[in-house]
Specification:
Number of helices: 10
Structural class: alpha/beta
Strand content: 15-25%
Shape: globular
Largest sheet: 7 strands, parallel
Radius of gyration: 17 Å
Distance between the termini: 28 Å
CATH topology: Rossmann fold
Order of helices and strands: HEHEHEHHEHHEHEEHH
Oligomer: single chain
Strand order of the largest sheet: 3-2-1-4-5-7-6
Number of domains: 1
């Protein structure tokens, strides 16, 4: 199921692992993704963050750039940080990718004392009721909800209360931990729109990602992305 160079294979024998999983389409990956991953490392004492590009994400109805190209961009974006790595787990497996299935696989592949932290945006957590088996997700990991200072936590708490998910906050008992990150108003959709309009995206994405985009037809006008 995993590629021979996949970081999950490398980490499988490590005891006491505190592992961040950053899932997403990464279409394209941008600097706000990297900032959130670095904040997770620092704020929650993680050993490593594994980026997990989706093969076929269930909530994306539009056409994406090819899985292989999104994987290559994510590898290029994270190459300079020795505590970042990229897994092909979801890229290589057939069918739709669901967070609960990925977490279940990781629980079996890693040591029993490994602790998983799934890094995502607070806005995505608000949609958790539409995820496959949200209770199963919360049973297998701690969700790190990346947000900006001033985010209204009351709505997030009410959504999770309907799942019996416990406390949203800063304590170790919380199934969702809120993670303040610097307020970077950057999104993959904004970057795609700029590319389509012929506007530069350098410094919104790492230079290596910008070079891949410039040399590719993946986001060219008329590509349908």
């Amino acid at each position: 199921m995993t590629h021979e160079a996949d970081p999950i294979s490398r980490l499988s024998a490590r005891r006491g692992l505190r592992l961040g999983i950053m899932g997403g389409a990464f279409d394209p990956v941008h600097i706000a993704h990297l900032v959130a991953a670095q904040e997770a490392l620092t704020q929650f004492g993680l050993d490593e963050v594994v980026f997990m590009p989706s093969g076929q994400p269930p909530h994306k109805k539009r056409r994406l750039a090819s899985p292989e190209f999104r994987y290559r961009m994510t590898v290029a974006a994270t190459a300079s940080n020795p505590r970042f790595s990229v897994s092909r787990l979801e890229i290589d497996q057939p069918g739709t990718d669901y967070t609960v299935d990925t977490l279940e696989y990781l629980k079996g592949a890693l040591q029993p004392d490994a602790v998983l932290f799934f890094i995502t945006g607070a806005d995505a957590v608000l949609d958790i009721l539409s995820w496959k088996d949200p209770q199963g997700v919360l049973a297998r990991c701690t969700l790190l909800a990346a947000t900006r200072p001033g985010f209204d936590l009351s709505r997030l708490a009410s959504v999770l209360a309907s799942l019996g998910a416990g406390v949203v906050g800063t304590g170790p008992e919380a199934k969702v931990r809120v993670m303040d990150v610097p307020g970077l108003d950057i999104s993959s959709s904004m970057i795609r729109q700029r590319i389509a309009a012929g506007l530069p995206v350098r410094y919104l994405v790492p230079d290596a990602v910008c070079d891949l985009i410039d040399s590719s037809d993946e986001y060219r006008p008329g590509s349908g992305i």
